[in-house]
Amino acid sequence: MNQYDKRLNEPEEGGGEAAGCEDIWIEDQLVPLRSLPLPGSLRASNRARIRAALASSRKPRVDPSPPRSRRRAGLPLTLAAAVAAALVLGALAVVLGRGGSGESRGGGAEALAGADDDALRVQKPPLDSVADRAQTPEGILESEGITGPDGDNTSGSDLRIATASLTPPAVATPDAFRNSGRLSPVPRNLDSENRPFGDEDFSPAPAAASPPPFAVTPTETPESAGTPDGSDSTGPDAFHPTSQVEFSPSSGSVGSVWGESVIPSPAPTPVPSGLPPRGSLYQELVQNRASGSSTSEAGWM
Amino acid sequence: VDDALLDRLRRGDPEAYEAVLDRFEGPVFRFFYYTHGDRDRAEDQSGETFARLVASIRTLRGGAAAFRGYLFGIARDVLRAGRRNTRERAADPIELDRLAASGPSQADRAAAREEFARALAAIGEFPFPLRHVLLLRFVEGLSLEEVSQALDLPLNTVKSHIHRGRERLRKALDLPLPPGSSDSEDKNRRGKSL
Prior knowledge:
The structure holds 2 protein chains of 2 kinds.
Chain A: H1 3-9, H2 17-30, H3 42-58, H4 68-100, H5 105-113, H6 117-121, H7 127-132, H8 137-144, H9 157-166, H10 174-180, E1 255-257, E2 260-262, H11 281-290
Antiparallel strand pairs in A: 1-2
Chain B: H1 3-11, H2 14-36, H3 39-56, H4 67-81, H5 93-102, H6 106-123, H7 130-139, H8 144-151, H9 155-173, H10 184-193
C-alpha cells in the first residue's frame, strides 16, 4: 500500500470518501511546493528579529520619544492652549481699555457689563456714603479721592469706569431715580401716584445734611422775585433769590445761611448769667446788641 | 507545539523560539513566497512575523491547539500591512534550478523540477484567498479550523473554497507546462490519469 492508498483509508473531515479522495489528489499535486529551498540567511535573520523582540519586551516600557500621534497632537495642543490663553487675556485687556476710554458712557457700561464683577467691585464705594455725599459721580470721585493710574481723578477712562461702577442697581426703580436725583432716566411708566414719570424735575435736590460751604441768604421771596428793574420775568435774566448773597459791612457778618448769621471771629465777651449757653444764636444776638453794632436782623427776624 | 512549549514561549525562552523556527520557519516563508514570489520580501516578512509572535504571544487564546492558526494569522496581518507595495510576479526560475540540483539522481531531479514547476504554475492561477486556503490546507497541512482561524474566514467559506479549488486545479493541471520542460506530455498524461 503506497502513501496514496493509505490516505484514502483515513477519515477525512468535512466530507465523505469521495471528498477525501479528491483532497488527497489535490495534496499530491501541490506537495512539491514544500520542497522550496529556503534562503541561507533566513534562520539568521529570524533569530535576530526574535532576539530584538525579546529584548524589547523585557525592557521597561520607557518611551523617550513620543509616538507620532502624540507628537502630532500633543505639541499643537499645548501651543493652541497657550495661544488661546494669550488671546483671551488680550481680548480682556482690549475690552477693559475700550470700556475705560470709550467715547460714550454706554460703551463703557457695555464693556463693563461683560467684565468681571470682582474687578469692578474694587472701585465701588459703599452706597450709604454715596447717597450722603455729593450728588454727581465726579464729585463722589473727587471727595473719595479716587484717582486713576495716571493720578487724574477728573477725567479719563478710569473716571468713567468708576462712574459706571458707582451706579447701584437699586437706582433702577422710578422712585429710586426720583429720590437719588443723580440720574436723568427716561421714564417709561407711571410712578406710584399715577403721574407720568418724566414730567418731574429730576434736577439734584438740595441736600439738607450738607449745606453749601458759603452763606447764601434768600433776601426776596418768590412773590417779589423779579428783575432788578422791577419787572417780572422768567427768562434768563430772571432774578434768582437763591443765588443772592447779602453782604452787610456794618455788622461785619458776611450774611446768613438759612436764617443764621455768620459772624467772622467775634471777640470773646463776658456772658451774663441766665443766658443760653455760649455759642447759641440768641447769645450772639445779645452780644451784637451789646456791642452796638447793627446786624442784619431783617434777614432772619 | 504543546502546552509546555507554549509556556516557554510566553516566558520568553529563546530556546523555545528556536524550536518554533525549526518547525515553522519554512512554512511561514513559503506562505509569503507563494503569495508574491519575492524571496527577499518573504524573508523580511518572515522575520516580522516571528517578531510579532514574541510581542503578542501572551494574547494567544485556545492553548497550543490554536498556535498554528495564530501564527499564520500573524503572517496574514503582516502580508496585509505590506500589500500596498506588493506586486505579484511569476515564480523565480532560480528556484527551479536549485530544485534540479538537489535531487539524488538526475531522473529524480528532473521529476522534482517538473512537479514543482507544475504545482507552482497551478497555484499561481488561484486568486486570493483561494490560493492561501489551498496552500495552508494542502501544502502546510493545517486543518479546516486552523485555516479558518488563520485567514479569518468562516469554516463553511473555507470548505467552499476547497471545493472550488479542486475544479480549478483540474483545469490548471491540464495546462501545458512551461516551455523547456522535457517530459511535459508525460506529466500531462499522468495528471489526467489521476
